[in-house]
Amino acid sequence: MPSPRYIFIVGGVMSGIGKGIATASVARILKSKGFNATCVKIDPYLNVDAGTMNPIEHGEVFVTEDGMECDQDIGNYERFLGENIYAMNYMTSGSVYLSVIERERALKYEGKCVEIVPHIPEEVISRLSKVAKKTKADFILVEIGGTVGEYQNLLFLEAARMMHLKDPKNIMFVLVSYLPIPKKIGEMKTKPTQYAVRSLNSAGIQPDFIIARSEAPLDEPRKRKLSIFCNVHAEDVISAPDIDNIYQAPVNFEKDKLGDKILKKFEIRRREKDLVEWSKMLRRALFSRREVKIGIVGKYFGTGKFTLSDSYISVIEAIKHAAWHFSRKPRIFWLEAEAYEKNPRKIKEELSELDGIIVPGGFGNRGIEGKIKAIEFARKNKKPYLGLCYGMQLAVVEFARHVAGMNGAHTTEANPKTKYPVIDIMAEQKEKIFTKNMGATMRLGAYACRLKEKTLAFKAYGIKTIHERHRHRYEFNSALQNVLESKGLMISGVNPESGLVEIIELKDHPFFVGSQFHPEFKSRPLSPHPLFREFIKAAISKKKSKR
Ligand code: GLN
Predict the structure, then answer these.
(1) Quick one: CA torsion of 424, 426, 432, 437, rounded to 10 degrees?
(2) Could you name the CATH architecture of 5-279?
(3) Starting at the edge strand that comes first in sequence, how are the strands of the sheet with 385-388 ordered?
(4) CA 360 to ligand 1 center in whole angstroms
(5) Contact 252, 243 (CB under 8 A)
(6) So where are the chain's domains?
(7) Would you tell me which CATH number, out of the four given (3.40.50.150, 3.30.70.270, 3.40.50.880, 3.40.718.10), belongs to the domain 289-546?
(8) How far is CA 269 from each of CA 66, 261, 276, rounded to the nearest angstrom?
(9) Residues within 6 Å of ligand 1 by CB
(10) Which residues are catalytic?
(11) Do domains 5-279 and 289-546 have the same CATH topology?
C-alpha cells in the first residue's frame, strides 16, 4: 500500500461513550486482517501533557515507552493492538500551540504573520505525517478528543478537513455517536445524532460511518432513519450496544462487517486473517466462573468525578489479563488505607479473605501508614503481594522497620527527617522540586533492568534484561542497601547503568515482589505481564492450598 490511509474518529452527542475503545477496536480489526495500524490521540486541553493532571480529576496518567505522560486512551490502543505507541502519537492543543509559538519565536516563519488558521492545523497535519513516516502504518486512526460542536476541537476538525480536501481517497471519517432511550418514552431516539452530523457537516466533514452507541442494538428502522437524515448508507451505520467487557467491541463491530466495509471504501482487497486468538481470550474472559480475589489498598476518598476504575485502569486491566490467562474471573476489592490507620482490626477482617494484595502507585502522605500495615499483613501471613512503585517503596519501609530493626524508617517523601531514609529523593529530582519545575520532570518511560538469576522476578520474565516504564521522583537508597540485604531483603533487579534498585522480593514467602517501575503499563490481553501472571498464579495456588 503506497500512501497511508487516515481514519478520523470523532464523537457526537456526549463524551464518555467509548470513542477510544472504538478507535482501538477498529485498529485491532484492521491488524487482524493483516495490515499495520496505529492510533493517534488528540486531546483538546491546553496542558502540554497529562502529567500535571490529578488522576482523581482526569483518570489515570499513562506512560509510554519513551516517557510521555498521556491519556489512558493510549493505554487502550496498546492493549488492543498489542504494540507500543510512542510519544509522537499523542498531542494536545497545548503541545501544538507551544510548537507553533516556539517556532515563531525562533523566526522559523520568516517574518510572516502567524495565524491560528492555517498554522495550527498545519502543525497538526505535519505531526500526523511524521507518524505515518515513522510507523509506516497502512492505517492511521486519529481520535479527536471531545465532542463535535464544541469550540475546543474545531481546529483539529479543520486539520482533518484540509487533509481530506487534498487527498479525499485516503481519508475517512467515523462518527461515534450516542442514541438515548429515554425511560418515559421507551424508544431509541436518533435526533441528537442527526444534530451531531449537522454540526460535523458545518465543519465541512461528512462521516463515512456512524458507530451508534446505545443501551440496546440498533434496529432497521433506526438505521434507515439515520441513513436518510445523516446522508450515510444504512449498512454503514454500525450498531454498538453496551457490552460487559470492552474487549468484545472488535468482535461486535465485525458482526456488522465493519472491517471489510472500511477496506471496500478504500478500495483495498482484504487479506485473509481474523480474530481467532482474540476470540479465544474473550471466551475465557466472559465464561470463566471460578474467582480470584484481589485487594487494592489505596486512598480513595473524594475520587471526584472520576471513578476508581478510571484512576487505576492499567492495574485493573493487568489483573484481568492475568486472571483470564488462568481462566479465572477476577474480583477486585477497593480497600481504603486510611481506614486501617483508624481501625487496625479492619486489616485482618478485610485482608484475610483475599487471595492476593496490591499496593499501587501513589504520592504523598495520606493513608501511608495504613498501606504499610497492609503490607506487613501480607508479609506475615504469606499472602501473595505485588507492590507497584509506591507499593514497592513502602514494602521496603515496612521491611526496614519491622525486620531490619530500623525504627521509624521512611521515605523522605513522607518524612524528610527520618533517621533511616530507606527511600530518598533522586539526586536529579531535588532541584526540580525546589524550583517547582514539575512538568514531565519525573524519571519517566522505559529503563533497562538486569535481573538476578534464581529470583521470582527472573523466573517470571525468563530473560536477564528487561525494559519497564517508570514514573517517580524517589528511589531505593543505595546507602542502606547492604544492611537491608543482610537482613534478608532480596534485590532481584537493578538498572545496569545507574545501579538503581528496580525490583525487590522476599524469600520464604509464596510471592512478595515490589517493582519501582509500573508493570501494569505493559500488560496486554493476549500477553499478560509476567509479574501479574506470577502474582495471580500464586494467588490461585494459595487459594487451592487453603482448601
Ligand atoms: N511517590 C513516589 C515517587 O515519586 C512513587 C510514585 C509512583 O507510585 N508512581 O517516587
Answers:
(1) -90
(2) 3-Layer(aba) Sandwich (3.40)
(3) 329-336, 291-298, 356-359, 385-388, 512-515, 501-506, 489-494, 443-451, 465-472
(4) 10
(5) yes
(6) 5-279, 289-546
(7) 3.40.50.880
(8) 35, 11, 20
(9) 361-363, 389-390, 413, 471-474
(10) 389, 518, 520
(11) yes
Extended beta strands in 426-486, E state: 443-451, 465-472, 474-476
Cell numbers given for 234:
444504512
Mutational pocket test of ligand 1: of 386, 443, 473, the residue with most ligand atoms within 8 Å of the beta carbon = 473
d(CA 228, CA 233): 8
Cβ–Cβ under 8 Å, residues 177 and 12? yes
**Rounded distance from Cα 405 to ligand 1 centre (Å):** 24
Which pLDDT tens digits describe the chain residue by residue (547 residues)? 567 999 999 999 888 899 999 999 999 999 999 999 999 999 998 988 877 777 666 778 899 999 999 988 999 999 999 999 999 999 999 999 999 999 999 999 988 999 999 999 999 999 999 999 999 999 999 999 999 999 999 999 999 999 999 999 999 999 999 999 999 999 999 999 999 999 999 999 999 999 999 999 999 999 999 999 999 999 999 999 999 999 999 999 999 999 999 999 999 987 767 788 999 999 999 999 999 999 999 886 555 555 666 778 999 999 999 999 999 999 999 999 999 998 989 999 999 999 999 999 998 898 999 999 999 999 999 999 999 999 999 999 999 999 999 999 999 999 999 999 999 998 777 777 666 666 767 889 999 999 999 999 999 999 999 999 999 999 999 999 999 999 999 999 999 999 999 999 999 999 999 999 999 999 999 999 999 999 999 999 976 665 5
Q: CA-to-CA distance for 318 and 520, rounded, in angstroms?
A: 5
Q: What grid cell was written down for 106? A: 525562533
- Sign, CA torsion 240/326/62/410: positive
- Residue 359: strand pairing partners: 387
For 291-313, the DSSP string reads: EEEEEEEE--S--TTS-HHHHTH
pTM (two decimals): 0.92
Angle, helices 258-265 vs 19-32, to 10°: value is: 80
- The residue whose CA has the least distance to atom 3 of ligand 1 is 472
